[in-house]
Amino acid sequence: MTRGALLGAALVLSGAGALAEGSAYTPEEIAEYAADAGLVPAQLTTAGDAEYGEYLGGECTTCHQQSGDSNGIPAIVYLDDLTFRLAMYAYKAKTRENAVMQMTAGKFGDEEIAALAAYFTTLDVE
Ligand code: HEC
Asked: Tens digits of per-residue pLDDT, 84-104?
């Protein structure tokens, strides 16, 4: 299998996960976002473990309010899964400025980022 075919297979497989329902993005768009960010599509689509995300997310809610209110710090609970992950990877790669978030995101690997996305983007907020 070529690398392209492998990535394609990963994308199709993971399509059954986080982005299965109501994803606003086509596989082509996801592939493009991934390429632009120096990622592989699976990093944006592999389903995260929301329970693990809740555990890891304890440190986030000292700044980002779980209720979705923002007090100078942007709400993260209204972001879609893909946008959330792209933001985390951008801080991690330091292509997006913000010292605290660069340090925060820098600690996490793919599994953690997927888990945090799964938790925060599916919270039931009005
Ligand atoms: C010390 C405060 C603080 C903590 C703790 C913190 N953040 Fe942030 N976060 C910020 C600030 C401030 C910004 C806005 C930075 C900017 O302008 O890019 C931000 C931005 C973000 C964004 C991008 C939001 C958007 O609208 O694009 C995401 C996603 C995010 N944080 C996730 C997290 C997660 C997940 C955690 C915990 C693992 C976390 N943050 C912990 C302060 C914090």
From this structure: 999 999 999 999 999 999 999
Question: 3-120: CATH homologous superfamily?
Answer: Cytochrome c-like domain (1.10.760.10)
Asked if residue 77 has its Cβ within 6 Å of ligand 1, the reply is no
Q: Which residue from 46, 49, 50 is spatially nearest to 82, judged by alpha carbons?
A: 46
Q: Across all residues in the chain, what is the average pLDDT?
A: 87
- Cα distances from 34 to residues 2, 58, 71, 117, in angstroms, run 18, 28, 31, 16
Q: Is the CB of 74 under 6 A from ligand 1?
A: yes
| Residues 16 and 80: beta-carbon distance below 8 Å | no
pTM, to two decimals: 0.86
125 Cα distance to chain centroid: 18
CB-side neighbour CA atoms (13 Å) of 66? 12
Summarised one tens digit per residue, pLDDT across range 4-28 is: 555 544 444 444 444 445 578 999 9
Ligand 1 atom 36 nearest Cα? 60
Tokens of 19: 């982005």
